[in-house]
Design goal:
The structure holds two protein chains of two kinds. Chain A is mainly alpha-helical. In chain A, 78% of the residues lie in helices and 0% in strands. Chain A is globular. Chain B has a single domain, classed as MetI-like (MetI-like fold), CATH 1.10.3720.10. Helices cover 73% and strands 1% of the residues of chain B. In chain B, strands 1-2 form a two-stranded antiparallel ribbon. Chain B starts with a helix and ends with a helix. In chain B, 45% of the residues are buried. The chains are: A mainly alpha, B mainly alpha.
């Protein structure tokens, strides 16, 4: 075989490999969506890899109403959005004070906030349960949002201080010379310049909070407060393991917000999610 | 000018609210866990009593703890090795083999990273299913005539941990490949071309040129993967519930059961502290392999 043919063959094999890779990552999700439209009889009569014969929307209706996904979805959304607002406010102000302002405990505080990055959720869980029980925050949305916020501060401060350090002091000094108060400076000068950093934090924390299971299953077990992930975890117990269609439909529902965010903000999401590691 | 940046009131307004929240809900619980680990029984109950180091001694004799530790460590090894190895492999494929649609391929491979863990676990539970009807994997195996390979992947102890690890590797390959790909792009093409002109083959190019340059990012990836997998909880709980038996029960899950099901607050805290220590000490040790960082 001539070297030209060998090269052609190698190129063809590479293409096949890449197609296989794409299938490995795409096919399970494609399968999930097709299965969510299958009728109950299809799961029994046909092999699992068969395509859906029609679009059986009843699965989504069942998941949304009888499976209480409507309640869980709204809970997850409210918890996530509320904590995102608090996370951004706290981490931007703390980061600004830690990088650009002058005070005695600055160095110590930077280390103190940094410490939390290493802390596994499991290590804080038992005392948190005690604290919540004693303060009446157990099984309340407030408790969950507060712990979501607190557990996100370290990592968010770490990311935002990284950006702020790169911001030239001259910009801030110019603002001060122009007579800006510290609060005006924050709102009119620092915030707009920190847009990318804030988007990064929002993307990462949206993912973490939407994805949270351990906090919500521990501190919000009341069915009216359950989140998407807790609901999904116990879905089979309440709905029966036979109802595959409804399970696939509810899994698809829980994936939807991340899917849309990813498709809409593809680059920002990839950059955001990997920012922590790249900077680490 | 410094007046403005030294404004004590503003500093307090910026820092104190977050500081209080963070101290109460992150730092205090750790200290508290440490304190609890010297107690026996259920907090607030009659049997609650100071026990000294008893809980720590108990760890070494507790079969359930040792089993969870072993499960957890095997999982860490499999998943960390898998995530970083396949992430690296995928990054190299992105860089050298993917000619067309590069951004699209990377977008697809990264896709599972953004999916909620519980959703992925529910999906994989159905992929691995054998009863009441074959899941995707078993039906594909049966479809291509490998009937003898059909098995309850997450229903028996010998395959459950591997099946769980495979899922967690699949989920994260995109994450690590994009990070490593980013580092590969930072390596100038001239270095790579020069090596190729000098007659380096692919393996030599990787071992002598790329690997040393990628070492810092690889170490970072290993630390990321390590700290993520030591905490092993959500994916295992959602896919296997720790079973069959205790075949996939991690330290965090054992801690959870001990503290919240059996209400042994003191002993649970001891296990929680062990998880924290493994995390901190482990990542310190891994960081040691990044020579430049140590300097």
């Amino acid at each position: 075989m001539s070297s030209k043919n060998t090269r052609k063959l190698a190129e063809a094999l590479k293409t096949v490999l890449i197609v296989v890779i794409v299938l490995v990552f795409l096919y399970p999700l494609f399968w999930m969506v097709t299965a969510s439209f299958k009728q109950p009889t299809e799961f029994v009569s046909k092999p699992a890899y068969a395509l859906n014969s029609g679009f059986y929307f009843q699965n989504y209706v069942d998941a949304w109403t009888r499976g209480h996904m409507s309640v869980y979805f709204v809970n997850s959304l409210i918890n996530t959005l509320l904590s995102l607002v608090l996370i951004v406010i706290f981490s931007v102000t703390i980061s600004f004070a830690l990088t650009k302002m002058q005070w005695k405990l600055k160095g110590f505080m930077a280390a103190y906030f940094g410490f939390g990055i290493m802390v596994p959720v499991a290590t804080t869980l038992i005392p948190l349960a005690q604290i919540f029980q004693k303060t009446g925050l157990y099984n309340t949305r407030t408790g969950l949002v507060l712990v979501y916020t607190a557990s996100a501060i370290s990592f968010s401060v770490y990311l935002i201080t990284g950006y702020l350090r790169a911001l030239p002091d001259e910009i801030i000094e110019a603002g001060i010379v122009d007579g800006c108060s510290i609060y005006r400076l924050m709102i009119d000068i620092v915030l707009p310049l920190m847009k990318n950093a804030i988007i990064t934090v929002l993307v990462i924390q949206f993912f973490f909070k939407w994805n949270d299971l351990i906090y919500s299953m521990t501190f919000a077990s009341k069915s009216s407060l359950k989140t998407m992930q807790t609901g999904l975890l116990y879905f089979e117990n309440e709905f029966g393991s036979k109802n595959w269609g409804a399970i696939f439909a509810s899994v698809s529902i829980s994936v939807m917000p991340m899917l849309f965010m990813y498709l809409a903000l593809n680059k920002a999401v990839i950059e955001g999610m990997t920012a922590g590691a790249v900077k680490g | 000018m410094n007046q403005v940046l030294r404004d004590k009131k503003a500093i307090a307004a910026f820092v104190v609210p977050g500081l209080i929240l963070y101290t109460l809900l992150v730092i205090l619980p750790i200290v508290w866990s440490g304190y609890y680990s010297f107690f026996d029984g259920t907090a607030g109950m009659k049997n609650w009593a100071f026990a000294g180091l008893k809980n720590y001694g108990k760890l070494f004799k507790d079969k359930n703890f040792l089993n969870s530790l072993s499960v957890n460590m095997r999982y860490v090894l499999m998943v960390t090795a898998g995530q970083v190895f396949f992430g690296l492999l995928m990054a190299l494929i992105f860089k050298f083999w993917v000619k067309k649609f590069g951004a699209l391929v990377r977008t697809i491979v990264f896709f599972p990273v953004v999916l909620p863990t519980v959703a992925v676990a529910q999906l994989f539970a159905k992929i691995y299913e054998i009863q009441p009807h074959y899941g995707l994997l078993n039906s594909l195996l049966a479809g291509v005539g490998l009937e003898s390979w059909v098995q309850p992947w997450i229903g028996k102890s010998s395959t459950a941990l591997g099946a769980l690890a495979a899922m967690d590797i699949w989920v994260a390959i995109g994450f690590y490949s994009v990070i490593i790909y980013g580092a590969l792009l930072d390596i100038s093409n001239e270095i790579i071309e020069a090596a190729q002109i000098d007659g380096c083959n692919g393996l030599q190019l990787f071992l002598h040129i790329l690997a040393p340059l990628l070492r810092p990012i690889l170490v970072t990836c290993v630390i990321f993967s390590f700290t993520g997998t030591v905490k092993m909880f959500e994916s295992a709980l959602a896919l296997t519930g720790g079973g069959p038996g205790t075949a996939t029960r991690s330290l965090s899950m054992y801690m959870y059961d001990t503290a919240f099901t059996y209400m042994k607050t003191g002993y649970g805290s001891t296990i929680a502290l062990v998880i924290f220590l493994i995390c901190v000490v482990g990542s310190r040790i891994i960081r040691f392999f990044d020579w430049d960082y140590r300097k």
